[in-house]
Every structure is written in C-alpha cells, then in structure tokens.
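In response to reviewer comment 3 from the previous cycle, which asked for concrete evidence that the modeling workflow produces usable outputs, we include below a single protein chain processed end to end. The sequence was submitted unchanged, and the resulting structure tokens are shown without manual editing.
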Amino acid sequence: MNRTRSVYQLLLAFIIMLVVVSGCLYKQTIDYKQENRELILQNDSLRAVVIELTRKIDTARLAQVPMSSVPPKK
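The workflow returned the following structure tokens.
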C-alpha cells in the first residue's frame, strides 16, 4: 500500500511539474511577443512586400514570353 501511495505521489509531482513548466514557457512566449511586437510586425510587412514583388516579377516574365512559345488551347 505504501508503494502504491508513493507511485501516486510521484505521478502527482510529475504532473504538477509539467503544469508549472508549461506555465513558465507560456509566460515567456507572451513576454517575447510583447517585447518584440514591432519587429514581428516589420517581419510580417516585409513578407507581404516579398510576396507582392514576386507576383510582379512573375507577371513581368509572363508578359515577356513570346506568344509562339505558348501552346495553343485545345
């Protein structure tokens, strides 16, 4: 009976430890996002610019392709 009780105590301690660690990691994530909000927004803006430039480059390349190289539609 003592052995069963110690197993349950060990299991409970492990679960409590997991909850505490996950709470600390969650808090660190929130703090990181708050501290680096401006950088995160800049990164998102730069990604949008890269996507838009890539679309424009693709459009320009398609405009330069001669019509003779485009296969006819069936």
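The helical segments are 2-35, 37-64. We consider this sufficient to address the reviewer's concern, and the full set will be provided in the supplementary archive.
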